[in-house]
Amino acid sequence: MALKEWMTPQEAQFFDLLEREAATVAEGAEALRNLLKDYRNVPAQRQKIKDIEHRADEIVHSLHDHLNRSFVTPLAKEDLSGLASSLDDILDYINAAATRLAIYGIEKPTEPMVAFADIIVKAVEQLRTALRAVRARESRDTVLKATIEVNRLENLADDLLNSSLEELLKGTDPLRIIKFKELYETLEVVTDCCEDVANILEDIVVKGR
To answer: Where are the domains of the chain?
Structure first.
């Protein structure tokens, strides 16, 4: 289903909700980066991320409620639902990473953790750019430029995961290896979720242009 040339206010609400959700995801990504770069008062920073994730859940529920009550939508219902759910997945894993930092009693984040957070913030910003471009019916190239950058960042995260695990496995503390391996993998999954959103946006412009 192509993006319509003109949208009613009711149809525009779907993009309003998606952009609100994307902004909330960006807030969560930045909060995670702040936590890793300024590793103090961890419980409070973790709670902030959890609260952000809950706000995003409310937006997703609202969007699905609108979908259930709407016969006409600016995009295919499965695309709107997929975008909302995939954006929510990003925050779910951001929250999972913050939770593991706290419950594992991590005393100091590693450089790779901070590097993952930087990648996540950049990827989410590219998703917001692509989403705005889809809404504004900008050229396909504008959307694809942003989504291709998300794919590049995800590949960078893959490489970072491999190098981080290689270095981690040189250690001799098995408990540390288990904790940090799971943290690295959780942070990398966040970038996989970003790529999922990018793929949906790519499909939308390929189908609709």
So the answer is: 9-208
Among 184, 191, 63, residue whose Cα is nearest residue 126:
191
Provide mean pLDDT across the span 93-107: 96
Q: 63-73 in b/e burial notation, b at 16+ Cβ within 10 A?
A: bbebbeeeeeb
Percent of the chain with pLDDT over 90: 83
* Whether pTM exceeds 0.90: yes
Alpha-carbon distance of 101 to 150, in angstroms, equals 25
What is the crossing angle of helices 174-208 and 140-168, to 10°?
170
Classify domain 9-208 by CATH number: 1.20.58.220
How far out from the chain centre does Cα 180 lie?
A: 21
Under DSSP, is residue 181 helix (H, G, I), strand (E, B) or coil? helix
